[in-house]
Design goal:
about 300 residues; alpha/beta; 15 strands; about 30% strand
């Protein structure tokens, strides 16, 4: 008998979540590529959350909730000044992968059929910035490792760090995703959040670097090419070089740095369980890994 796939509410039953539901309006749908859409949910009142948290999302006509991470920073959930007398409403942003799961399938209907619909949402999750139990003032390096839609919570975190004063610590950002080459070639606009992340680093809003890893576009039988290249990102983030392979443990080790640096580092890993489990084990294991303190290595698994 095949294993029964647990739903979002079942997988996160032990996770902290707010008690109250909030009504939001689906105000905008952006098609990134054939597999990912980005949604803007307008708020009628400010909503508090921490970067990295997710939403229970209840869509019309579907009894069970979908679980989708907030990709916008918390500041966007508050009204902002506009050129008119009224302020712009606060909003939450979600990136949702195409799926037969009923809540996702509802969100993947014709945009004209769902725009301005009202949804119910509830905030939850403990994979957050700032890192619990870590003195952020003493940090020298923050390492973010994302695989596929695991980019979502880390986008919110980096967006939050990019606001205000430049953080005093370095940021190493490693992002692996499936390549997407359209008729006009490889464009950053079709690679989820690559332009946004590249712009943050290009404008010096954080110190450090973005490393991009593209997979699935080769013909060597393993879904990987032997060389790399550059992703065209226009004027927003400039051209972004990429590695044509998956992120390796050695890549993560190099990003964390030597013994003197990792004592003052924190690592966030988000992606499929096989990736997160391997990286966390190698980072924290004192025998054949780096032996980092477990509370300095945070992870979230997404299916």
């Amino acid at each position: 008998m095949a294993d029964v796939k647990l739903g979002h509410l079942q997988r996160t039953a032990a996770s902290p979540r707010d008690k109250s539901l909030h009504t939001v309006t689906l105000a905008k749908v952006d098609q990134i590529n054939g597999q990912v859409r980005v949604f803007r949910l307008e708020l009628s009142a400010p909503l508090r959350f921490l970067p990295g948290q997710w939403l229970d999302v209840f869509v019309p006509g579907v009894a069970k909730a979908g679980g989708y991470t907030i990709t916008s920073p918390p500041s966007k959930a508050r009204p902002s000044p506009s050129s008119t007398s009224s302020s712009e409403p606060g909003y939450l942003e979600l990136a949702v992968q195409k799926s037969p799961d009923p809540p996702a399938a509802w969100l993947w209907q014709d945009p004209d059929a769902i725009t301005y619909a009202e949804l119910q949402v509830r905030v939850g999750g403990s994979f957050v910035w700032p890192p619990p139990g870590v003195n952020v003032r003493a940090l020298r390096r923050a390492v973010f490792v994302a695989g596929g839609v695991g980019i979502n919570p880390l986008t919110s975190m980096l967006g939050s760090l990019a606001e205000g004063l430049v953080p005093p610590f370095e940021v190493e950002f490693l992002y692996s995703l499936k390549d997407d080459v359209g008729e006009e070639g490889r464009q950053a606009s079709r690679l989820l959040f690559v332009e946004r992340l590249a712009k943050i680093f290009k404008e010096g809003k954080v110190k450090g670097r973005l490393q991009l890893f593209l997979t699935g576009g080769g013909s060597d039988g393993n879904g990987e090419r032997e060389d790399g290249g550059v992703v065209a990102s226009g004027d927003e983030g400039g051209d972004v070089p990429f590695h044509a392979r998956r992120i390796s443990v050695d890549d993560v080790f190099a990003a964390v740095g030597g013994a003197s640096q990792r004592r003052f580092a924190v690592v966030y890993v988000c992606g499929v369980p096989t990736m997160t489990d391997e990286f966390v084990e190698k980072l924290t294991n004192p025998q054949y890994g780096l032996g980092m303190e477990p509370h300095r290595v945070l992870c979230e698994r997404w299916w």
